[in-house]
Design a protein that fits this description.
Helix content: 40-55%
CATH topology of the largest domain: Rossmann fold
Order of helices and strands: HHHHHEEHEHEHEEHHHEHEE
Number of helices: 12
Strand content: 15-25%
Largest sheet: 7 strands, mixed
Distance between the termini: 73 Å
Strand order of the largest sheet: 5-4-3-6-7-9-8
Length: 296
Amino acid sequence: MTWRALLESGKQELLKAGIAEYELDAWYLFEWTFGFSRAQYLLLSHEEAGGAGESPASKADFEKRLSLYRTNLWRRGRREPLQHITGVQAFMGLEFLVDRHVLIPRQDTETLVELVLAAYPEKEIRLLDMCTGSGCIAISLAVLGGYSAVEAADISREALAVAEENAKRYEARCARPRFRQSDLFAAFAKEEQFDVIVSNPPYIPSAVIEDLEPEVRDFEPRIALDGAEDGLSFYRRLVAECREHLAADGHVYVEIGCEQGEAVKTLFLEQGYCEVSVWQDLTGKDRVVCGRRPAA
């Protein structure tokens, strides 16, 4: 069997399993398992897999890698997310470790990070990421914004362990964020205040979760998805509790579901925030709501 035939067999297996992006996912698993770059594959695709050619996978370990490739195709075929198989996901040009304890970082969330980076070019601010999960927001802001004081919190001890590992990967490039376990602000002293608070909280209505793709419904943590009956439960708490921990003229940025813009904006206004705005992502869908705490 040639390398090309091996890759094609993977594509067909994922196609039969009903994977929408079967070609792309088969390639990612092939690349990750055998260590091929696109250029190497093009040069060697017609050679015998595991043969004497100058392939990244030497003959000595080919059978081991082949077994792993087949196992990973089976895992993807049963709808396990690709990111759980490879253990990583790209976000803001960085790479983050992920597992079943954290939400897989999405490109949608990059909108929130980009808004904060654009609004706060100064470095001496205190920034908090609430419901941090993998730590992708907090760490991206620390690395790309160069902020001197970034903190992050999550109720899940397992998620925080993942976030800590991700922070270690980038500690040479930024001031390392401080992580703490907390049910929203329960573990914060009353006097602790921040210039910016960001959050990607659970916002999917409970009844909708069962209709999600199996990759999300069956493998990602329910605690990071479930926003209770109307999807707004955590926003109500966040918007109210953030006021006590925001410095004067401080801002809150929250990611939202694409149909929640006006509802979340109303929650901000009801709590006395000003300059409340709804921002769209690259596809033109509502994605972030931002509000400022008045100075007086």
